[in-house]
Amino acid sequence: MKRPPLTAAPARKALGQHFLHDPDILHRVALAAGPVAGRTVIEVGPGPGGLTRALLDEGADRLIAVETDARFAEALLAWPEAGERLHVRKEDARKTDWGAVIAQAGGNMPAMVIANLPYNVGTPLFVSWLKAGAWRGEMALMFQKEVALRICAQAGEAHYGRLAVLTGAVANAHIAFSLPPGAFKPPPKVDSAVAVITPLTDDKRFGDLAILEKLTAAAFGQRRKMLRASLKGIAKAHGKTAGDVLEQAEIDPTARAETIDQAGWRRLALALSG
Ligand code: SAM
Question: What pTM was estimated for this model as a whole?
Answer without folding.
Answer: 0.95
